[in-house]
Amino acid sequence: MASPSSLLSQEQIQCICLDIFTSPISTPCGHNFCMACIGGYWDSSDVCQCPLCKETFYRRPDLCINRTLKEISEQFKTRLSLFEEQYAQPGQVPCDICTGSKLRAVKSCLVCLASYCQTHLEPHQRVGTMKTHKLIEPVSNLEDRLCKKHQRVLELFCREDQTFVCVLCNETDHRTHNTVPAERECTEMKVSFL
Question: For residue 114, what are the β-bridge partners?
Fold first, then answer.
C-alpha cells in the first residue's frame, strides 16, 4: 500500500495546532486553519490578523468551512490510520521478512520459526509444502517454543512435570509420563481459569 503522504504531505493539511485540519476554514488572505484554532487566536487578541502572514482584517471575517479541504483532511486521516495500522506498533509482533519499516505480523510459523505480515505469509497459503506448516497467532518469542536440548518445537505438555516438551523428549525423558498436545492443554487451562 502506498503511503498516504506519497500524494499529499501531512504538512499541507496541518493547522498551526500541528494537527490535521478539523472544520477547516480559509481566511481572506488564503491561509487555512481549524475553525476553533483561528477563533481562539482572534478571541485572545485585540487585532484580527492572520497568524501566518500577519495581514490585518479591520473587522472579523465571517468564516465558513472549506468543504473541499474538509473532505481532503478526512480522507487523509482515514488513509493515515489504515496505513499506520499495518505497521508493527510497540507491543505488536513485527514481520521477520520485511526490511526497513516492519509491517505487523498476522501469523507465526512453527516450522520456519518466523513471523509474517499478510504479504509475506502468502507462500504459506499457496505453496503445497508450506501449506502443511503449523501457523499460530503471532508471537515474538518463537525461540522460546523450541526445546533447548533438541531444537524442536515444544508441541506436547507433560502433566507430571508441568512443562512443555518436544516429541524427542517425549520418547526419552518423558516416555512414561502423561503427555498431551500442548494446544489441548492450553485450551483446557484457559477454560478452567474462566
Answer: 109
Check pLDDT > 50 for residue 10. yes
Query: What is 4-86's CATH topology?
Result: Herpes Virus-1 (3.30.40)
* CATH of span 146-194: 3.30.160.60
d(CA 170, CA 165): 7
Q: What percent of the chain has pLDDT over 70?
A: 89
> Residue 57: CB partners within 8 Å, gap ≥ 6?
27, 28, 48, 49, 50
Q: Which long-range contacts (CB under 8 A, 24 or more apart) does 60-68 make?
A: 61/27, 61/28, 63/25, 63/27, 63/35, 63/38, 63/39, 64/25, 65/23, 65/24, 65/25, 65/35, 66/24, 66/25, 66/26, 66/32
pLDDT digit string, tens, across residues 34-50: 999 999 999 998 889 99
